[in-house]
From TrEMBL:
It comes from the Bacteria. The lineage of its organism: Bacteria, Pseudomonadati, Pseudomonadota, Alphaproteobacteria, Hyphomicrobiales. This is AAA family ATPase. It holds the Pfam family VirC1. Gene3D superfamilies: P-loop containing nucleotide triphosphate hydrolases. InterPro entries: DNA_Partitioning_ATPase, P-loop_NTPase, VirC1. It comes from Shinella zoogloeoides.
């Protein structure tokens, strides 16, 4: 189970959760998305045509039911992805406590360190309660395709210096990602004639997904060694 958490609104949780789910589904995996975002973007996306049959969306979830819902979904699907709300809540804490990996989308440009560090504190507390590591990493999002890589490197260096894991891939600001949420279906179903840089958007989603899989495998191997 992979959760997307950051109390900062608009950090890109919903967008990156859907990108990951879409890519995993495109590779043939069975994916459940638990939509715990009060805006219900993913449920609305799923109600539009184009949702692949191997993505199941579970929108009916409360802080009381989230543990049961995720456990049930995990028995039926290879991947369970949870898109969390942009606040700190019992729902968020419960979801983090159950996660195999927590992804912390953080806007690259503004580098909302506060939201990210709040989430990391919460993860560390939940890890202590659960007496296990909860693997996690910051994902820099909404990175401008044009921005000099130097400023991004600065952000990465700061996170590194603070001992915080950061994804090597970041999510670039792309119209294709907005269109996917607005019009439904997978990225690959968008029309390249109408969406600029669709190929780059698809490649970005693939790179991110490949890194998630590698990190999940590494975390599992690590936990196998610790056990
Ligand atoms: N990489 C991106 N490229 C283009 N638009 C993006 C990108 N990431 C996010 N957006 C847009 O920014 C807005 C906020 O993103 P998103 O809904 O993914 O954030 P969130 O963290 O889920 O927010 P909330 O806390 O409100 O749930 C949306 O309109 C989305 O389409
Ligand atoms: Mg959201």
């Amino acid at each position: 189970m992979i959760s997307f958490a950051n109390p900062k609104g608009g950090a890109g949780k919903t967008t990156s959760a859907l990108l990951l789910a879409g890519e995993l589904a495109a590779r043939g995996a069975s994916v459940a998305i638990v939509d715990a975002d009060p805006e219900r973007w993913i449920s609305q996306w799923g109600a539009m045509p184009g949702k692949p049959a191997n993505i199941t969306i579970i929108g009916d979830v409360t802080e009381d039911s989230v543990v049961d819902v995720v456990e049930d979904a995990s028995t039926e699907h290879q991947f369970v992805i949870i898109d969390l709300e942009g606040t700190a809540s019992l729902m968020v804490a419960n979801a983090i406590g159950m996660s195999d990996f927590v992804i912390i989308p953080t806007q690259g440009a503004s580098m909302d360190a506060k939201g990210a560090s709040k989430t990391i504190k919460l993860i560390r507390n939940q890890a202590r309660l659960a007496k296990r590591e909860i693997p996690h990493a910051v994902l820099l999002t909404r990175v401008s395709a044009a921005v000099a890589s130097r400023s991004l490197k600065n952000v990465r260096d700061q996170l590194d210096a603070a001992g915080i894991e950061v994804f090597a891939s970041s999510i670039v600001e792309r119209a294709a990602y907005r269109d996917m949420l607005d019009f439904g279906g997978l990225l690959s179903k968008l029309d390249p004639k109408h969406v600029s840089n669709l190929d780059k958007a698809v490649q970005n989603a693939m790179d991110f997904t490949a890194e998630v899989i590698t990190r999940l495998k590494d975390a599992q191997a690590e936990q196998g060694r610790a056990a």
